[in-house]
Amino acid sequence: MKGSKVILNGKTLSIQDVNNVARNGALVEITEEAMRTVEASRALVYELANSDTPVYGFNRGVGLNKDREVVAKYYEEYNRNLIYAHCVAVEPEASEEDVRAILLARLNTLLLGCTGIQPAIVTMYKDMLNYRIHPVIPERGSIGEGDIACLSHIGLAMIGEGEVHYNGIRMTAKEALERASLKPIVLGPKDGLAIVSSNALAAGPGALVLKDIQDLIETADIIYALTLEGYRGNVTPLDPKAYEVRPLPGQAYSSQMVRAYLEGSYLWLPGVTDSLQDPLCLRGSCHLHGSVRDALDYVKKYMNIQLNSSDDNPCVLLDEKRIISCSNYEVTSLALGFEMIGIALSHLSRNSCHRTIKLGNARFTGLSRFLTPSDARVIAYGTIQKTFTSLDTEIRHLSNPATADYFSLAGDIEDHANNTPYVVKKTSKIVDNLRYILGIEAMHAAQAIDLRKATKLGKGTKAAYEVIREEIPFLDKDRNLSIDIKKAYNIIKSQELLERVREAISE
Amino acid sequence: MKGSKVILNGKTLSIQDVNNVARNGALVEITEEAMRTVEASRALVYELANSDTPVYGFNRGVGLNKDREVVAKYYEEYNRNLIYAHCVAVEPEASEEDVRAILLARLNTLLLGCTGIQPAIVTMYKDMLNYRIHPVIPERGSIGEGDIACLSHIGLAMIGEGEVHYNGIRMTAKEALERASLKPIVLGPKDGLAIVSSNALAAGPGALVLKDIQDLIETADIIYALTLEGYRGNVTPLDPKAYEVRPLPGQAYSSQMVRAYLEGSYLWLPGVTDSLQDPLCLRGSCHLHGSVRDALDYVKKYMNIQLNSSDDNPCVLLDEKRIISCSNYEVTSLALGFEMIGIALSHLSRNSCHRTIKLGNARFTGLSRFLTPSDARVIAYGTIQKTFTSLDTEIRHLSNPATADYFSLAGDIEDHANNTPYVVKKTSKIVDNLRYILGIEAMHAAQAIDLRKATKLGKGTKAAYEVIREEIPFLDKDRNLSIDIKKAYNIIKSQELLERVREAISE
Amino acid sequence: MKGSKVILNGKTLSIQDVNNVARNGALVEITEEAMRTVEASRALVYELANSDTPVYGFNRGVGLNKDREVVAKYYEEYNRNLIYAHCVAVEPEASEEDVRAILLARLNTLLLGCTGIQPAIVTMYKDMLNYRIHPVIPERGSIGEGDIACLSHIGLAMIGEGEVHYNGIRMTAKEALERASLKPIVLGPKDGLAIVSSNALAAGPGALVLKDIQDLIETADIIYALTLEGYRGNVTPLDPKAYEVRPLPGQAYSSQMVRAYLEGSYLWLPGVTDSLQDPLCLRGSCHLHGSVRDALDYVKKYMNIQLNSSDDNPCVLLDEKRIISCSNYEVTSLALGFEMIGIALSHLSRNSCHRTIKLGNARFTGLSRFLTPSDARVIAYGTIQKTFTSLDTEIRHLSNPATADYFSLAGDIEDHANNTPYVVKKTSKIVDNLRYILGIEAMHAAQAIDLRKATKLGKGTKAAYEVIREEIPFLDKDRNLSIDIKKAYNIIKSQELLERVREAISE
Amino acid sequence: MKGSKVILNGKTLSIQDVNNVARNGALVEITEEAMRTVEASRALVYELANSDTPVYGFNRGVGLNKDREVVAKYYEEYNRNLIYAHCVAVEPEASEEDVRAILLARLNTLLLGCTGIQPAIVTMYKDMLNYRIHPVIPERGSIGEGDIACLSHIGLAMIGEGEVHYNGIRMTAKEALERASLKPIVLGPKDGLAIVSSNALAAGPGALVLKDIQDLIETADIIYALTLEGYRGNVTPLDPKAYEVRPLPGQAYSSQMVRAYLEGSYLWLPGVTDSLQDPLCLRGSCHLHGSVRDALDYVKKYMNIQLNSSDDNPCVLLDEKRIISCSNYEVTSLALGFEMIGIALSHLSRNSCHRTIKLGNARFTGLSRFLTPSDARVIAYGTIQKTFTSLDTEIRHLSNPATADYFSLAGDIEDHANNTPYVVKKTSKIVDNLRYILGIEAMHAAQAIDLRKATKLGKGTKAAYEVIREEIPFLDKDRNLSIDIKKAYNIIKSQELLERVREAISE
Known about the structure:
Chain A contains 20 helices and nine strands. Chain A has helices at 15-24, 32-50, 75-86, 96-110, 119-131, 148-158, 173-179, 191-196, 200-231, 240-244, 249-261, 280-283, 285-307, 332-359, 362-365, 384-398, 420-452, 459-471, 481-493, 496-506; strands at 5-8, 27-30, 90-93, 133-135, 138-140, 163-166, 169-172, 315-317, 322-324.
């Protein structure tokens, strides 16, 4: 997928595409038809403005200033000032990955022709992506009805001011544009508003977070399967029939995957497990992972709409030759979905924690206390319980909602907000904490498998076990576990675990 | 709909059906085929138990006691004790409406034949509904993996112990069964577990809450439309094209309804509104109501699965002649959906509050301060702002998640929970607060319409205005507004507003 | 204490006094000096108003209407309208206990002479308390900068409108005043504001909640001591020296009380406990109860200030013959304290839950599973774990803060609030849930003591054990435990447990 | 204060001392008496261990392993392993400032002689501070009953393993010790536990946060005073008498300071302000800042106890020649205090936001919209409202409690936690956000002062105004405001504003 090209037309951008462009360096290309739409939209805007129709952000101001006329000779100055006055975001700076995702998310929706932006700016978005000119964007400051406080910093770079990363090196935008032989944009009417007024800060990085969650659930399924082998868990709850009588889509899928990972495992041998029913954290994992999957599907649906429809206000209607005022900058559905998925992940986290605690409990596993290789001499996985549970406590805290806490602003005109960028950000922190938590579970599972001398592992779990053991050897004596934890985290974050297991089960 | 009959077969129970049976006194009937399934399932259970297969809750104990054998001669005693030991719920008592919903939700899933319960108990559920024998169920005590602590109280009534309401009169279960000429149940194997182990406490009342939310959004759409008329709001944001370029299903629907309510309104006359763009609370209401609709659709989907599939563990598989252990009591998807919708309603609430505040603001409406009929002599709607915002503060508080806060119980076997009944309950409180908040908005809207002397109202809003004015006269001087607020609440809760408006627009 | 009289002078009202008047029917009396202060204050207000100084709420309107002049001949009408327009509160109605506490809290601060209210109204507060005329006050609607939306309903009753409870019977205020031979108040200048503008809804019921928390911690200490005996817990952590090296006041006190309760217990006998260290829930209870005590002391300090100082705005300064505008209606310190104590109680709750879970765990107690008297035949305290942990989940939810969620109201003049009444209310729900949770722990402790045949109990714990066993017999077979739980709750709520134990240790 | 020396004796360490050592490079010295106590304590531990008394963490294991004997010849190995096994913390790494605070907090409590640690380790803490050898400590992983997962990394460095910063350069601990001519520690009995088992991760950085909050409130008082001048606010609410009738300590102090800052201001001139009462955000700021001060005093009290008393378990009692098991690692009071202060700061934040919004509102200030210097050409402070309110939304989110969310760990022995380090951390994030929020208010206040041409400023506010204007010129045309915001933040964070104002009012 790396190095591949993503073709944009405003209608077919996928979460996977965002990931490829943002993280894997894929180039972007705009279809000719889309560019023609952009041009037609621009022409219409001029046509209407000349006919004296008042157009918000074009020949009228924005926000509370919507009552102020902007006359043609001040278009450039007005729009430059608009960019300046909207540069109000604060640290930290968005990662370059996120900046790419933002540029892409905005670029794609411009292609629908609802914005009326000048075509050269559209091309600039594409060039910035393809030349790797990444404007420095402080990421805090948006309340989510359009991420105007942050996206303005892109406009700043486009007119050759502010700073960017160019091929990874920080420099002034002016220098980067020169080096890449690109001309700074001269802003025309509505261009300022067109650049700042979009939810791309929520949409781009949000799409990456959804990609990460998708991977995380898959990882969680794998590690759960590995834990079953470490624990010598009862596989009865994986019975496909159980999922037929209760047709929740997500859990059916998770259970199918877990069965695939465990194909060929010793767990399926008769008489292996004698407990009638394991603890719920082991018995219900597919159900819980399924609940996260269901929630994710919901958010993905709304993200796909966001990535491929206009959130412009005003909105240019090419076919009707009208510009209408609307509220299409509203992304509350997206914020709600992310809030739900944060709570869902909090369940997934607690579930993993309980499985890990159980793996350390000799009474349940029949193995040693804290999976020590030597009761007398090695302390092993005791204190580490504080690590993953403290990370879970953070997740619980992050899972509190933040979307509905806002002020009435701009002279009481802007009396709604949804804080979607912050909601996305906190979700992304939840995901990162989960990489540690699942990583520690994986460490436990591998240790339990070793202590149990379980050799006949499943098709997928065997691959998982091997990935772990390549990096983290069996704990034969006490050592600095922070190092092991970091390695486990990296195996997950780098997708090494995922890729190796995917490969194994597809053989 | 009242007095109608609902036919049950385990597969087609709708939220509307639950509402009809629980609140409108509809009778229930079980299909013959379903009863045959129940009987077959019971027969299979006996067959397997006699073959010495260990069956959780049948010839083995439940929970941590799952390792304990239960021999046949103690079936009755064991199951009675099980009912007793599970009677641990605490006040308040569930309303009779909720009790009916609970009985119905459990009855319907029994018909799938996955339980193995004795057929006489199935009939008893039906009789209790049709004879209006409503066991007293303390409603707190469930953590949501099966509402065993509460549903046990139904079992108590079925064996002729504890208390019930019979045709609205409280009496002992014994007396009620006698009066209705019903025989108390003699419990057999697995019957205790079959009665207690279900999520009916979440499902039944949860379905009613979803019905209420459905009505509430419709009400919110109506009152928003009325506010537009009181405010003389700009109707541009209702333009259908705006919703075409951004295909979020809920907001398209809401905007369509609002247009229908406003059909024929003076707001559509040329030149009526001069503001280029109204405050967001007025401009984005359809979008926000749409977000709630989208969230609601998600929860309804999972509620329909819950109402029509087995959550039994163990689960009887008639076609395969097996009983399997599973985790089908997991209802986390449902809990997550309710959490999301609570947050969504918190947005809706704040939106309504802001609209009402705007209606009281002379600068925005061009009317008098606090909609007073006389600046000099009448204070009018000033302090009332504290009422609805304080109710909103409660909603914000209730919208905090509660589903993932649980303990590890039963000797660390039950280390997951989802608290679905509590999540449903807090959602229901949010809904009730919203009836006040929307009611107060309606009072403001009607007052603004009167002050504005706006006579040409929409088809639906005219009906809404009339319903309000029939109960609450124009505020011509200060009076005890608590009384008006309660009336406005009643108009909404009783569905009078809804029904009259539905009728009006369907003419 | 019942039937005693509380003398009021504005400066010495204690939380205990509030409890006596509100719940034990104590009468109130106003000192002569205080009444003279009230009269002087009223005279000053007239003097200033005649001199044309603008006085908020006197010869000027309130809230956003503060720019409106009120002329003398409309004083009565204006103030009556003010009462009407502030009657905007909604259900539920405050309990009669709470109403008494509210009346008392307001009455006492009036005596400081900062209000300028007419003396007859002061007397009316006293009469309402002494004649048991309790205005019906809907308790929701205040955002806490003065509880104006609710206290207005007192004013309504004073002018002979609205409803009251008179000696427990609901009737119109008019009738009650007649029956008690009291004349309705004729409102004069500033009287309306004086009645509504106070934080008495937070202060009165808040004081009762603090009284309840005080009792609850004492109860928790007792039940913890009982649990130690049921568990055969290690008493080493009670060593007074441990509390000397770490001088946190609350924990020193709790540990001293627990030692007193356990005086003479078998636990102090050599060799009784063999575990080097018990689980933290048993080892650290005094520390945790101490943390609650410390937090409580903080809140009590601010409550005492609230009960005995003026929160009037404007504020009459008798000695300087001035009326000043101020923000003394701010009670945020109080709200913060209640928020903290809610979180503190959430810790106490979880601690009790863990102790109870441990009592049901044979591995820790050496007794039977779930404290059953017969492993084979009685299920005992298994499912009940769901009851107390679900109540804890509610407490966790209630412990989320609500004080800082408010709107900007009254034309953006009232842009701060603290929601103190709601914060008090949710704290009171936490307290009530804890009565169940501690009650269930007490049931477990007594059962464990019986199973252990521990006969030599402590001086205080023996009394506690006896109170419990008088109401709730040993669980020799399964029975409806909801009944037992309610009894345990009642023992705590009625203070029977507290009183008997206090008596026992004071002998 | 910089470069000064702090003398340690275990009993008199102040928050100010922690700040000096951690941030200003002050050296530390241990009193001779204190070292003698340390030596005596060590001797006692050996004496008791030789007498075969079981001592937790000495000749017995820790946590669930407390039943395991540790024999003398394995002391070194056992303690090294203990350090290894406790090295389980994860990123991010604590700042060097925080590491110094941690070292100091632990060092001081060691001097009380309750630990029994070997004296060479005590000296090593001192040397690490004085030589600036700062162990790398990953800061996440503690649940707050002793920060064992993190403090272990100090032990690692002391034995010459892991990494440190030495004079700001990262290197191996081995190399740093060599360069500083220090010998690695050879661990003896109990040393491992003594190093890890302390709450220094909460106490040290927590003390720094309290110092920051202290400064922040002072800053808030100053900026509020400046805002009053920008707004031309009514100074009536500063009347000292208002604070006499309601003796809340914090607000009395804040109002006194604000009066001092405004000494000589034009605001005191007769006739300057004509509004009878300003919005609450302006009227009640001293009250609100006072509430934060009151809350801070509470936490400081418990922090001082924490810094100067033993939190060891077991605890060596020198005078009684005993070692007792206890729960002195409990720091829940501290956690509760931090939770309260977080909520208090959330109020302060919202208050500042509302003041800033008011400054941008022409209707309230009589100045231009968004404080623009030119209505026609400059947009000015419009979008910036999103910046500070989005930061407030984060604060609201952070203010949710986290202290009571924990698991039951270590074989159900460790069933309580308080998460104090995380609670401290989130409080520190709140503080940092507030620096931006107050900084933006200061920008507004200065702009309003300029637009109003208010020349006669107060003694303190004049200094504040000048500090701001030295860095941030008057906004005469639109510019990149992110740069201005960062400058405003820096003025506050660097304490430049504070110091200049302190100087000014003390002249």
